[in-house]
Amino acid sequence: MDSTLLIILIVVGILFVIFCIAGFIKWRANWLTTWFNVKKLDINKPILEYVELLLAERNLADVQVKKVGFWASLFIGNTYSVSKKLIRVSWFASKHSSVVTLAQACRLVGLAQMHADGVKGIKAVEAYRWLNWLPILLLPLIVIGLIVDLVAFESVGLYTIIFSAVGVVLTLITFILGLVAMKKNFMAYRIGEEIITGLGVLKDTEEKKMRQLFSAWKSLEVVNAFLNAFELVYFVLKIVFSSIKLFGRK
Predict the structure, then answer these.
(1) What is the DSSP string of the chain?
(2) Tally of domains within the chain
C-alpha cells in the first residue's frame, strides 16, 4: 500500500474515533440537560425574576433582561448581548424552574459580570455564536476557484489558490474565536456555580447534579471549538482518499 494512502487512512481513522468521542459527549450533555429540565426546583420566583435579582445584587442595573418568543428562542435564546448589555432568556427557560434554567441564568449573569469588570475577549463569545458556521465555506470556495480557473483559463491556478486561501483564513478565524469563547465561557460557568451556591436554593444532591451539568457543558464547549476544524479535515481527506482510489483504478 502506498505510504501516502496509508497516512491518510490512519488520520481518517483517528478523526473517526474523535467524532465518536465527540458524539458521546454531545449525547451525554443533551441527556443531562433533558433529565435536569424534568426535575423542577422548589423556588418561589420565576427565572426572569431571579436574573433581575442577581443583576441588582451585583450592581448591574444597566443590564436589561428580556424574554424572547418561541421562534426566536431557537436562535438567540439564553444569550448575553455584549453590544446591547442584554440578557435574553428563552421562552422555554422562562416557564420552567429547573436546575438547567437556573444554571443557564447564572452563567448569563456571569457573562454580564465579566463584561462589567472589563474582562478582555468577552466579545468573542457573542462573535463565535454568530460566526461558527464560517468553516463550511471552505469547500464551496475551493470549488468556485476551480470553476473560475477551468472556465477562464482551462487550468487550475491563481483563483483556486486565492479562494482556497480565503476559506482557510475564515476557518482559522473561527477556530481562534472558538478557543477564546471557550475560555471565557469556562469563566462564566465558574462564576455561575458560585452564584448558584450562594443562592442556597439547591439541596446537596441538586448541587452535585448542577456541577455535573456544568461539567457536561464545558466538555461540549471543547467539542464545539474543535469539531468544525476536525470535520473539515476529515471531509477533505475523504475527498483526497476517494480521488486516490479513483486515480488508482485508472
Answers:
(1) --HHHHHHHHHHHHHHHHHHHHHHHHHHHHHHHHHHHHSB---SS-HHHHHHHHHHHTT-TT-EEEE--HHHHHHHSSEEETTTTEEEE-HHHHH--BHHHHHHHHHHHHHHHHHHTT-TTTHHHHHHHHHTTGGGGHHHHHHHHHHHHHHHHSSS-HHHHHHHHHHHHHHHHHHHHHHHHHHHHHHHHHHHHHHHHHHT-S-HHHHHHHHHHHHHHHHHHHHHHHHHHHHHHHHHHHHHHHHHHHHHH-
(2) 1
Contact assessment for residue 227 and residue 22, using Cβ atoms and an 8 Å cutoff: yes
Identify the pLDDT of residue 249: 46
pLDDT tens per residue, range 109-160: 999 999 999 999 899 998 888 888 888 887 788 788 888 887 887 666 788 7
Q: From residue 197, give the alpha-carbon distance in Å to each of 29, 36, 105.
A: 21, 17, 13
Supply 180's cell numbers. Answer: 477564546
Residue 240 domain boundaries: 3-249
Confidence at residue 138, expressed as pLDDT on a 0 to 100 scale: 78
Q: Report the predicted TM-score, pTM, of the whole model to 2 decimal places.
A: 0.75
Rg (the chain; Cα; Å): 23
Range from 54-68, 155-169, 227-241 that averages highest in pLDDT: 54-68
pLDDT of residue 59 exceeding 80: yes
